[in-house]
Every structure is written in C-alpha cells, then in structure tokens.
Protein: Jnk1/mapk8 associated membrane protein
Amino acid sequence: MAVAMSSTCPGLYCGRMMVNGSVEGECGVCPRGERANLQKVCERCNESPELYDWLYLGFMAMLPLVLHWFFIEWYSGKKSSSALLQHITAMLECSVSAVVTLLVTEPVGKLSIRSCGVQMLSDWYTMLYNPSPDYINTIHCTQEAVYPLYTIVLIYYAFCLVLMMLLRPLLVKKIACGLGKSDRFKSIYAALYFFPILTVLQAVGGGLLYYAFPYIILVLSLVTLAVYMSASEIQSFKNLIAKKKRLVVLFSHWLLHAYGIISISRLDKLAQDLPLLALVPGPALFYIATAKFTEPSRILSEGGNGH
Structure:
C-alpha cells in the first residue's frame, strides 16, 4: 500500500518527470508545454487546438481591435478620411501582432500551435490547486495547464501595444491636422488605458471568458446594434441604406452575430448548426419592423390624446 501511495502524486496538476523512458524525481510542477497525465507523469502536449480554442483566441484578438476602432471613431470628429486611415492602421497592427505571436509560439516559425487542451475550468487556475498532503507543507504545482491559451493572449497584447506606439503617433501627427493638438492622440491614450485592463481581464478571468465568450459576443453585438440604430434614427430600410457607413456597421454586427452562433454550436453537426446562421439578420429586421411602434414622440402624443 505504501508503494502504491508513493508512486502517485497528490493534487490535480503535480507530476513526475520522464527521463530516458523512466519516471524519475519527486512530484512537482511540470515544465512549460507539458502536463501531468492520468498516471501523474509529465507529458509533452502535442495536440492541435480545437475549433472552439481558435474561436476563443479570435475573440481575445478582436477585443483590442474593436476598442481601437471605437475610440478612433469617438475622437476623430468629422474627419472621416483621417479616421479611415487610423482604422486601417489599427487593423494592420493587430494582424501583424497576431501573425508574429503565432510565429514565436511553439513550434517556432510556423503559423500553428501545439496545445494541452482545456478539460475543465480549474485548468485555468492551477495556483488554487496546490496540494498539502500533510496539511503543513504545500507542493507548488502552478503551471499553464491550458498551454498556450493563457500566455499567448498576453504576448499578443504586448506586440499590439509595441506596434501601436511605433506606428500610430507618426500617422496621427501627419494626417489628423484638422483636430486640436489635445484631441489628436486621445485614441492612443485610450489604448494605453484599455490594454492594461484587457491584460488583467485575461490574467484573472481568462477561464471564465473561455466558457462565456460566445454569449458575451451575442449579447454585446445585439445591444450595440440596437443602440447604434436608435442613435442614428434608423427606422426604415431607406434610412439604413442612405449612408455607406451604416451598412458597414450593420454587416460588422452580422459577422459578430454569426461568430457568436458558430462559437455556441461549435459546428458539431453541420446539417443542424448551419441553418442557425439564417437567424443573423433577424434582430436588425425585427428592429426596423417595430421601430415605428416604439417612437417616443408617438407614444407621448397618443398618451396625451388619451388624457
């Protein structure tokens, strides 16, 4: 019985090293890129990420880009030409950062990554699962059990920040002449605030975001579309197609709706899941169909007539 007890490791994430085909050493943390298997032996992760893992990484990569676009639009005023160039630059920064991040992650130099996979929520928070077999001494087995999903996002944000600081100030100084000196760099200052917030969000809530992001995408894209259409006073198809910008915003939201639906369904059963994409235009069509019935001035006038 004593032999059986000593041959296994306590805790969920502790393991022994495999050296020259034999298991050696004491129980402890597995090296980066490895994970303890069922026999509590550290095993190199060679799996490819699942579709859902890629969708999660895509969501985390989209966050800074969407925030860049929002603040560029917010602070650019009427200078649409300068805003467009900044939008394109922001997209270029995030795209290059994503490619470089994939290239520097193992296997280095390839646009693919090897992954340990996610089995449960606790995989994201291994620091909370360090065992204390004798209730006195703790065996520290904190590691990246979801390798590389946790750190790859933080590396990506670092590259985004560096590229933004290299490219954007020069561009803004050249093209944003119509804006005041204080207004020119406000979209960059906003990024200096939201990047640390995104980093903390990933560091603390990465595991929760991994399971919740499809629903976050759907809810936020529905709310922002409704707010935009209300603020732009779009109440008919004629209003909608009056400006190209409105169509761009609409199609962007439709892409987000589709992304959310694909993330929830994971396309496990194509014949069953693909028809769900037909729901994508639904919210916009519903809004236009019902907007005239919920016009505040009409409701107030009818209420006044009733009295």
